[in-house]
Specification:
By secondary structure, the protein is an all-alpha fold. It contains three helices and no strands.
Length: 105
């Protein structure tokens, strides 16, 4: 079995943080306004992300793009699934790299 593609998330931490904060804001607002269960909202967000992938992949297959990305749907979906699984697992508080900074000394 071929190893799935890896998604590099070690890029700009500011961009990662901004995306996470934006998604959390949308999640909370949707919970408040819709009264839907959290897993329903998260499922809807996952479907929306899948739609964004589909649109971006289609655009990259139909016209050249200077970014150089070549969509490989099966491998890309496996990589997205692995990234969600990794991020969703609880981290222990002993890992200081993942603790939120609340002040400075």
């Amino acid at each position: 079995m071929r190893e799935p593609r890896r998604i590099e998330v070690d890029g700009d931490p500011d961009v990662q943080g901004e995306l996470q904060q934006t998604l959390l804001t949308i999640f909370c607002r949707t919970l408040d306004s819709s009264r839907l269960p959290p897993m329903t909202v998260l499922g809807m967000m996952a479907e929306a992300l899948g739609g964004v992938y589909r649109q971006a992949a289609t655009a990259h297959l139909t016209q050249p793009c200077p970014c150089g990305w070549r969509p490989m749907t099966e491998a890309d979906i496996a990589a997205l699934r692995a990234a969600v699984e990794t991020a969703a697992k609880l981290r222990t508080s002993a890992d200081l790299a993942w603790m939120e900074v609340v002040g400075r000394a």
